[in-house]
Amino acid sequence: MHFSAVGGLCSTAHDYMRFCQMLVNDGEWDGVRILRADTVRMMSSNQIGKKILPAHYGWQKFGLGLGIIDDQNDTLHGAYGWGGAC
């Protein structure tokens, strides 16, 4: 197995769901604070400025480790996630 910063992360669907729910809960999981709410906001906010990117999996901008939809005219504005592939 090869671990790297950009690929090779291995997990179960159940653990990934828990991670995603922790993000939805602003960094809290099952009553335990894992990340500060400010950290989750930075992760899910545009970190690349006004650069325009092709919509890869629908993501127009990038936060810290997450693709985000930053188009005010898009019905999914404010959505974030990761497709699991580059």
Summarize the structure.
By secondary structure, the chain is of the alpha+beta class. The chain has helices at residues 13-24, 37-43, and strands at 28-29, 32-33, 61-62, 67-68, 80-81. The strands form 2 sheets. A 3-stranded antiparallel beta sheet has the order 3-4-5, with no helix packed on it. It has a two-stranded antiparallel sheet with strand order 1-2.
Written account of the structure:
- The chain has 86 residues and is α+β, with helices and mostly antiparallel strands.
- The protein is built from 2 helices and 5 strands; from the N terminus they run H-E-E-H-E-E-E.
- The protein folds into 2 domains: 9-43, no CATH class; 44-86, no CATH class.
- Helix content is 22%, strand content 12%.
- The strands form 2 sheets. Strands 3-4-5 form a 3-stranded antiparallel sheet, with no helix packed on it.
- The longest helix has 12 residues, at 13-24.
The strand line-up of the biggest sheet is 3-4-5
* Estimated share of beta-strand residues: 5-15%
User: What is the count of β-strands?
Assistant: 5
Q: What is the residue-mean pLDDT, rounded to a whole number?
A: 81
Task: Report the helical percentage.
Answer: 10-25%
Largest sheet: 3 strands, antiparallel
- How many domains, as an integer? 2
- Uncertain regions spanning at least 5 consecutive residues: none
SS content category: alpha+beta
Rg is 14 Å
Order of helices and strands: HEEHEEE
Shape: globular
Supply the number of helical segments: 2
Q: Termini, distance in Å?
A: 19 Å
